[in-house]
C-alpha cells in the first residue's frame, strides 16, 4: 500500500491582501503587457502612484547613510510580505526569500557611503532579490527603480513605497517596462568579474575523509531557486563510487538525453544530476554536474578556474580545510555545511563581494604584465608585517633620493598603523571567520602612486599596473629591487586586449569561512 501525502499549502494571505489594497498594482498584474506597451513612469507621492510623462529626479546623495538604514528597517518590517510576494509571483520558496532579505538587511546595516556601488537601478525578471543590494545606493540617490517584468512588479512597487519613507517623503519614480535584451548585471559579473555573479550557484567539494551521507543529504536540499543553488559537485576519486551510491539512493534514474554526453543521469525533485559529463553543460539551476578529482591540488585548480562565488567543502582534515579555503578566491566558503549565513552583519559583505562599480582596463599581455603577475603571487605569500617592513624600506630609500618631497615620510607613517580587518564569531555549533582579501592586480591611472591610498593598497596585498604617465620624474627601480609588485604598462583597444584588469574604489573584499565539525546531517 502506497501512502499519499498531500502537499502543505503556502500561506500567501498577506500578499493577496496587499494586492487588493493597491489598485494600480493589481491592474498592472492583470494586464502587464498592455499597460507597459506605452512607456510611462509612475510617480509615488506617499499616497498613490500617478502615471505621468518622463520625469528626471536627478541624483542626491545627501543623508545617504540614514536613508540606507531606513531601507533596512523597512525591509525587516516587511520581510514576511516580501517572501509571500516572491512565492506568489515567482514561485520562490519562502525560506529562500527570507534568507535573501536577512542578507540584504545585514548588508545595508554595514553600509558605508561611497561611490563604489553599481550605477544601475533595474530589476530584471531572472534576477534574485539579492541583486537589489548591489544597486541600493544608486536607487536611493536617484529615487528611481525600473521593473522589467510582471514577476518583479509587486516587489518593485513595495520597494518604491519604502524608498519614499526612507528619503523623507520625497517623490520616487517607478518605471514598468517590457523585458529588454540587454544583459543584466549578474551576467556582466559572471563574464567579466574575477568571481561569478550573485546568482551563480555553489560548487560542492567532497573529500575522501568526508561524511559522504551527510554531504549528499545536505547539499541536495538546497533549493534550485536560491542564488546559491547547487551547480557542480567535485568528489575525490577514492570515495566517488560511495558518493554515487549515496546519491543514487536519494534519486531516481533518468533516461539519458541524446544531447547530453555523460555516464549516467539521476533526478531529485526538480533537478538533474549529470554524472561524469564529457563537457560542462550550459548553466541551468536545475542541472548539476558531478565529477571526480584526484588530489587537493587538482581541486584547488578546478575551483580557481571555475571562479565560483560559493563553495561547500566537505572534509574533516584541518590541513585540507586550511589549504582549500586559503588558496581560492571564493568569498563564501562553508565547511561541512551549505547555505548557512549565521554570524554578524559583516558576513553579508562576503556575499556581495565583487558586485561594486569597476572601471575595466584592457591591456596587452606583455612581459611587464607577466612579471607583475609573478611578483603579485610572491607578494601575497608574505604576511602583513613583512610587506609593511619592505614598503617602509622602499620609502626610506625614496626619502634619501628625493629629500625635498615630504609625502614619502607621510606615507610611511600611515603604513605603521594600517591593519587588515577581520572578525571571528563562535556560535553553538559553528565558527565563522571573516577576513580581508586583496583584489589582485589593479589598474592605476592617477598622477602619482606615491599616496597613502596606493601604498595601503599594496600593503594589503594588491599589485599596481600603472597605465598613466604617473611619476615621470621618479624611477620605479626601488620597487623592482625590493620585489614590490608595481609595473608600468599600456592600455590596449578592447578587441586587441589579452587581459582585462580592474580599478575599483575598494582595495579588498571580505571572505567568510563557516566551519562545522562533527555534525551528522543524514537521516
UniProtKB/TrEMBL annotation:
Q: Give this protein's Gene Ontology molecular function annotations.
A: oxidoreductase activity, acting on the aldehyde or oxo group of donors, NAD or NADP as acceptor
InterPro entries in UniProt: Ald_DH/histidinol_DH (IPR016161), Ald_DH_C (IPR016163), DUF1487 (IPR009961)
Q: What is this protein called?
A: Uncharacterized protein
User: What species was this sequence derived from?
Assistant: Mythimna separata
Q: Tell me the classification of the organism that encodes this protein.
A: Eukaryota, Metazoa, Ecdysozoa, Arthropoda, Hexapoda
